[in-house]
């Protein structure tokens, strides 16, 4: 299959591109810059120059391929306004990609976060929340999944709060960066809240499986660790960086403060049973031991 991939040079995207190429697919990857284009070519894929805001480029990518994996996201969490702009840009791009696939029976694999369900681990059957700072993203993904009734083999991968590789990435990576800047490895609340996690290489396998065989309109959880306590995550970061581990004000995390403070465990039992996905890479706390001081 020839696959159009957005976000193909990021932590997750580069792993997805490698997974696709290693399993007999070819890849056309959106490249926002010359450096990204060179990275795509080095990986063995073909670059298509443009960004999420270049809607005609997105349409061209769909026209040249047999399926789509959408991963690109601006990741600007500096303010509520910046995050809203990022979500709006992605929503428009997703709508464009989905509309181009109507009636084709081709697959599109989208991405979102795992749901937050009070009192228990979320499952694939739980709906995404359309409220909060990233609620617009959930609405856009849900709209794409609904295109299953219009001849598109839609599926959605729900990623946990931390997708990691070699000690970097996800919300744990944000904790690490803030610890380096502040001199304290902090955690919000009492630190007993749980974050699910997955290694990027394991997540990449699930994206491929969904592309190849997921039924239309389905959602899947890329969760290896159901939930590590945030204070345990902060403890590893503090030890690796030689910093004190302390409770901090959630406001230090800006618009993500409320999300960082929430208990968010998640299950992938259904995904493992139906798609045969089985994580094999190091778990989060083990992988964080690779953080360089």
UniProtKB/TrEMBL annotation:
Superkingdom field: Bacteria
InterPro entries linked: Epimerase_deHydtase, NAD(P)-bd_dom_sf, NAD(P)-dependent_oxidoreduct
Start and end residues of each NAD-dependent epimerase/dehydratase domain: 3-218
Signal peptide from the UniProt entry: none
Alphabetical list of Gene3D superfamilies matching this protein: NAD(P)-binding Rossmann-like Domain
Region entry Disordered, spans: 108-134
A UniProt-annotated Pfam family: Epimerase
Entry protein name: SDR family oxidoreductase
């Amino acid at each position: 299959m020839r696959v159009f991939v957005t976000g193909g040079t990021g932590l997750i995207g580069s792993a997805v591109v490698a997974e696709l190429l290693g399993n007999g697919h070819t890849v056309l990857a959106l490249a926002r810059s010359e450096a990204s284009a060179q990275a795509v070519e080095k990986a063995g894929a073909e670059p298509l120059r443009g960004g999420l805001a270049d809607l005609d480029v997105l349409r061209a990518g769909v026209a040249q391929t047999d399926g789509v994996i959408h991963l690109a996201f601006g990741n600007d969490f500096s303010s509520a306004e910046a995050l809203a702009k990022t979500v709006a840009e992605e929503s428009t791009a997703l709508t464009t990609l989905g509309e181009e696939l109507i009636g084709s029976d081709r697959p599109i694999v989208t991405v979102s976060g795992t749901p937050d369900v009070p009192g228990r681990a979320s499952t694939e059957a739980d709906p995404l929340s359309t409220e909060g700072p990233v609620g617009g993203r959930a609405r856009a993904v849900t709209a794409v999944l609904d295109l299953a009734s219009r001849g598109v083999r839609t599926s959605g991968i729900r990623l946990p709060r931390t997708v990691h590789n070699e000690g970097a990435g996800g919300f744990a990576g944000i904790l690490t960066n803030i610890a380096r800047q502040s001199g304290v490895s902090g955690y919000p609340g009492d630190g007993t809240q749980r974050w699910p996690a997955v290694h990027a290489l394991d997540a990449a396998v699930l994206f491929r499986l969904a592309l190849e065989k997921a039924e239309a309109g389905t959602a899947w959880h890329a969760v290896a660790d159901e939930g590590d306590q945030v204070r345990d995550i902060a403890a590893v970061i503090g030890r690796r960086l030689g910093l004190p581990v302390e409770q901090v004000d959630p406001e230090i995390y800006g618009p993500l403060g409320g999300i960082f403070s929430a208990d968010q465990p998640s299950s992938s039992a259904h995904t493992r049973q139906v798609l045969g996905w089985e994580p094999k890479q190091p778990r989060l706390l083990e992988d964080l031991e690779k953080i360089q001081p």
